[in-house]
Specification:
Distance between the termini: 71 Å
CATH architecture of the largest domain: 2-Layer Sandwich
Order of helices and strands: EHEHEHEHEHHEEHEEEHHH
Largest sheet: 5 strands, parallel
CATH topology of the largest domain: Beta-Lactamase
Structural class: alpha/beta
Strand content: 5-15%
Low-confidence stretches: none
CATH class of the largest domain: Alpha Beta
Number of domains: 3
Strand order of the largest sheet: 2-1-3-4-5
Shape: rod-shaped
Helix content: 55-70%
Length: about 375
């Protein structure tokens, strides 16, 4: 409330006093609003929705006297805080007490003194201004305290989320933790993870609609925090979060929630990257396992073939020895045949021994794969 040109309701059935009060009120920088009795004054207040700085009212008036007007004002929720000053020629204690009981703030006795009228008006209006300022400061302090408490509580939830998130190793459980925190904040949320197998969409109740998933996909190239209507999207490298019911009507709460959600999403990002790293490591481990098992099978097959070939050669030599007994060959011819067979066996053995170098190549492959995993 400002004093400059502030409207003041003046109520009196005597036109001379009404004019006298109005002149001094206007001279003091206020705007007088005149009424001839309490009923007219009360209707004027209602018409102005109570937007007056003070009321100065005579006590003895027809239709509705000053006490009745004061009671009506104090009974109306929109009017009860307006300062009220009585004007009367009656100065008895009983009259003063009656004015006090009905809710009056001050009393001016007749005959009126213009300076006294202005001084009392200034006093009650300045008092009203101080009261409103203190009330505003008090409310601001309460709001700040409530915000601080709320923010502290939210930080506690974020810390607990970070602790719990380290105990989960798949996206469905991580989404459930995240959505539990946002639900406690009164928010309806959809979260979309960009996993190796594709986009994974989750919300607290029901299935994510194709439109919700599509909105998240299309908004991925927008800014980190993207507002549209009462909705906000938080975009990160590996996930996006859609808040469907941001409180636009409360700017302070809206701003506070953005800060809190930003911190919560930062915490979520840490665990998402951990899960993606774990998935990549697991995929490499699966590749190494598959290749190692294949190499082991090849190795065993090679050794089995080597044994079979050597056994076949030994059997061939034995049979040749037996057969040569009936061929009627000279000793020199038998030595020649034996030499050919022995040479073939030696060359076969050398070939298999050269094949042992494959084992070294297998070891190199395993070492390379394991190094890539690390």
């Amino acid at each position: 409330m400002s004093k400059s040109n502030a409207p003041i309701l003046v109520v009196d059935d005597d036109p001379h006093i009404l004019s006298f009060l109005s002149i001094y009120i206007e001279g003091a920088g206020y705007t007088p609003i005149q009424a001839k009795n309490g009923k007219e004054g009360f209707n004027s207040l209602l018409a102005r929705d109570g937007k007056v700085a003070a009321i100065i009212s005579d006590v003895d008036m027809p239709e509705m006297n000053g006490y009745a007007l004061c009671k009506a004002v104090r009974s109306d929720e929109n009017l009860r805080e307006i300062p009220f000053v009585f004007v009367s020629a009656l100065i008895s204690l009983e009259e003063r007490l009656k004015g006090y009981e009905t809710g009056g703030d001050d009393y001016i006795t007749k005959p009126l003194q213009g300076e006294e009228v202005v001084a009392k008006i200034n006093h009650i209006i300045e008092k009203k201004i101080r009261h409103e300022t203190l009330a505003g400061d008090l409310q601001a302090s309460r709001n700040a305290a409530l915000q601080a408490m709320s923010y502290t509580s939210n930080l506690g939830q974020i810390l607990q989320f970070m602790k719990d998130a380290m105990q989960v190793f798949e996206f469905k459980s991580l989404a459930a933790l995240f959505l539990g925190v946002t639900e406690s904040m009164g928010l309806a949320v959809v979260v979309q993870f960009l996993a190796p197998e594709g986009a994974l969409n989750y919300k607290k109740e029901g299935e994510v609609t194709p439109l919700e998933a599509n909105v998240l996909e299309l908004a991925r190239d927008k800014s980190r925090i993207f507002d549209f209507g009462a909705r906000t999207i938080f975009n990160y490298e590996d996930f996006s979060v859609l808040i469907k019911n941001m409180p636009l009507e409360n700017k302070e709460k809206y701003g506070l929630l953005k800060d809190v959600l930003g911190n919560l999403c930062d915490a979520l990002e840490v665990r998402v990257k951990g899960l993606l790293t774990h998935a990549r490591v697991q995929a490499k481990e699966d590749v190494i396992k598959t290749v190692t098992e294949a190499l082991q099978r090849i190795d065993q097959s090679y050794r089995d073939i080597q044994k079979l070939n050597m056994a076949a050669l030994d059997e061939t030599i034995r049979k040749m020895e037996d057969a040569m007994m009936g061929f009627g060959l000279t000793e020199q011819q038998e030595d020649t045949v034996r030499g050919i067979i022995t040479y073939a066996k030696r060359r076969t053995t050398e070939a298999f021994e050269d094949g042992n170098s494959l084992y070294d190549e297998f070891d190199k492959i395993k070492t390379t794969l394991q190094g890539g995993l690390d």
